[in-house]
């Protein structure tokens, strides 16, 4: 272990609460300036925080007028719903938990007669509440083991009830240190529990800070960014990180906190259990009047959340305008989503933007049209978003992965596919993005798709991801030099696992010399044209080809 290496310092086997601050610092620095001057992250809270936010958009800087750039085909709400699915994974919750919370919050908000601006903020806040959730997962996993399971269980606990919190923490600490002698176990658990309040303060503050920075990067408005700084605040003033009390906590924050807990308890024991829990915590976690009105109508507010298509319901509820994001706004959101995924581990900071740039440039070298290069840029940003659904402990493990852990790792490509399943423009990106671990000989994952079913773009993305990852430090190996990575990539191509053209283009783009012969194609055809001919030869219809390409 090299103590001068921040990743080593973080990933040593004796991670302490204090190291959380190191990771938080590195994540904060990264989000403040992830790609140097090219990103120019906005300063949170720097826009007009006084006065009403212009309707109908939640985007902070356009006042409802779309800039004169192309339409991305994706609504802001659709993007947020997509992101909410990723945060469900990161919080150890079933998919669509945040969507259901949003629907329940809107229903309760209507019952309470909340004004349009509050409902609008609550809508987006309910979907984005946990976008900072990856900020401290590494430290959590190092201390508690499976942080996703811990979070799943923590969601049903009242954080204001210290004994409940301590009991849960002690249970996970014991599991994480199983095999230790009874004396050492007792000492470790006692020591960790004594530091728990500080850990929670640091952890929740980091979560809020990262959420605010990501929302700022997406260009979202100040009312929403302010709420993201209050995720763990409570009505009784016993929340974190600022112990705001009563009306100091934004109404949208109080509404969504209640709605989410109601959804979780509804899942555990139905509407009656939800109402009983909300009633019990009324005046402590929740605004008493909100709790009272909820309990009066719990069955109606929670009706059919598990049966109807909450995806359609939640989109239909979007307050204000429904305009699509411009291309520029969509790209900015994809960049924020890339960072959301990469901060899961200190080893992967910057991975997705790096793959994105390399894949897009290599795609152009392969002769793919500009539209495909643009798509590769976006798929590079989004390809590892499913990473959030796997415990940070697996991503940070220094030794060999067990079979179960390896199965979990493989799932991240499936989760990318699942998160990006809708709407259609995202589904097309997800279809390519989720194939970044597929191999030409069918030995990859998660579909074990072989060359015939891998588009030229998917082959380029796989080569770019492989090369970029090899040049990055990982817990189980040092970073390969560019020359070593190039040799590994050539070996993969010779073995028939990676596409030779894609490898050549990636290596050329990365500054390696590639024999010209490899780049030549019959009759001067482009990579795209060869792809079309290949599919034609297989008898695909125009429609099927368009779908595949
Ligand atoms: Fe991956």
Q: What is the C-level CATH assignment of the largest domain?
A: Mainly Alpha
From the alpha carbons, calculate the radius of gyration and give it in angstroms. Answer: 24 Å
Beta-strand proportion: under 5%
Give helix % range.
Answer: 55-70%
- Poorly predicted ranges: 1-25, 33-56, 61-66
**Side-by-side strand order of the widest sheet:** 2-3
pLDDT averaged over residues = 86
Number of H/I helices: 26
Number of domain modules: 3
Most strands sheet? 2 strands, antiparallel
The CATH topology of the largest domain turns out to be Hypothetical protein af1432
Q: Termini separation (Å)?
A: 46 Å
CATH architecture assignment name of the largest domain: Orthogonal Bundle
CATH superfamily of the largest domain: Hypothetical protein af1432
Elements, N to C (H/E)? HHEEHHHHHHHHHHHHEHHHHHHHHHHHH
Listed once per kind, the bound small molecules are:
fe (ii) ion
Q: What is the structural class?
A: mainly alpha
The number of E-state strands comes to: 3
Q: What general outline do the C-alpha atoms trace?
A: globular
Overview of the structural elements:
- This protein has about 550 residues and is mainly alpha-helical.
- It has a two-stranded antiparallel sheet.
- Helix 9 runs antiparallel to helix 10, helix 17 packs across helix 20 and helix 22 packs antiparallel against helix 23.
- Fe (ii) ion binds next to loops.
Short description:
Helices cover 59% and strands 2% of the residues. With 549 residues, it is mainly alpha-helical. It folds into 3 domains: 203 residues, Hypothetical protein af1432, CATH 1.10.3210; 46 residues, no CATH class; 192 residues, Hypothetical protein af1432 (Orthogonal Bundle).
């Amino acid at each position: 272990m090299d103590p001068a290496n921040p990743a080593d310092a973080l990933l040593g086997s004796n991670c302490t609460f204090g190291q959380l601050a190191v990771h938080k610092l590195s994540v904060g620095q990264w989000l403040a300036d992830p790609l140097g001057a090219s990103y120019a992250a906005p300063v949170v809270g720097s826009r007009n925080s006084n006065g009403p936010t212009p309707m109908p958009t939640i985007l902070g800087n356009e006042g409802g007028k779309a800039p004169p750039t192309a339409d991305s085909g994706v609504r802001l709400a659709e993007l947020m719903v997509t992101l909410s699915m990723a945060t469900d994974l990161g919080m150890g919750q079933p998919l669509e938990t945040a969507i259901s919370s949003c629907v329940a919050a809107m229903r309760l908000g209507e019952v309470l007669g909340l004004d349009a601006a509050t409902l609008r903020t609550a809508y987006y806040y309910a979907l984005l509440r946990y976008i900072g959730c990856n900020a401290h997962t590494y430290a959590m996993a190092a201390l508690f083991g499976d942080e996703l399971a811990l979070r799943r269980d923590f969601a049903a606990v009242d954080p204001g009830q210290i004994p409940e919190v301590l009991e849960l923490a002690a249970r996970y600490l014991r599991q994480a240190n199983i095999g230790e002698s009874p004396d050492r176990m007792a000492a470790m658990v006692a020591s960790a529990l004594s530091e728990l309040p500080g850990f929670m303060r640091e952890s929740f503050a980091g979560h809020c800070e990262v959420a605010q920075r990501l929302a700022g990067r997406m260009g979202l408005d100040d009312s929403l960014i302010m709420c993201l700084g209050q995720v763990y605040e409570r009505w009784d003033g016993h929340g974190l990180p600022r112990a705001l009390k009563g009306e100091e906590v934004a109404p949208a924050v109080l509404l969504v906190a209640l709605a989410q807990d109601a959804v979780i308890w509804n899942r555990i024991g139905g509407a009656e259990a939800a109402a009983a829990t909300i009633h019990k915590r009324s005046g402590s976690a929740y605004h008493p009047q909100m709790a009272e009105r909820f309990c009066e109508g719990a069955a109606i507010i929670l009706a059919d959340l598990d049966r109807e298509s909450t995806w359609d319901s939640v989109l239909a509820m979007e307050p204000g305008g429904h305009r699509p994001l411009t291309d520029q706004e969509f790209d900015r959101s994809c960049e924020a989503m890339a960072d959301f995924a990469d901060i899961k581990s200190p080893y992967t900071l910057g991975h997705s933007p790096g793959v994105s740039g390399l894949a897009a440039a290599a795609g152009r070298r392969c002769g793919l049209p500009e539209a495909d290069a643009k798509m590769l840029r976006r798929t590079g940003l989004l390809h590892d978003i499913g990473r959030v659904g796997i415990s940070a402990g697996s991503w940070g493990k220094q030794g060999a992965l067990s079979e179960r852990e390896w199965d979990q790792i493989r799932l991240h490509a499936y989760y990318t596919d699942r998160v990006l399943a809708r709407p259609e423009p995202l589904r097309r990106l997800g279809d390519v993005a989720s194939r970044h671990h597929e191999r030409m000989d069918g030995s990859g994952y998660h579909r074990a798709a072989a060359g015939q079913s891998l588009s030229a773009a998917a082959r380029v993305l796989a080569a770019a991801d492989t090369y970029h990852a090899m040049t990055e430090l990982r817990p189980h190996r040092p970073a390969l030099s560019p020359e070593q990575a190039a040799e590994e990539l050539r070996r993969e191509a010779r073995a028939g696992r990676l596409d030779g053209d894609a490898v050549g283009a990636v290596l050329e783009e990365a500054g390696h010399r590639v024999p010209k012969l490899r780049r030549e194609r019959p009759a001067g055809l482009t990579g795209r044209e060869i792809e079309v001919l290949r599919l034609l030869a297989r008898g695909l219809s125009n429609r099927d080809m368009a779908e595949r390409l």
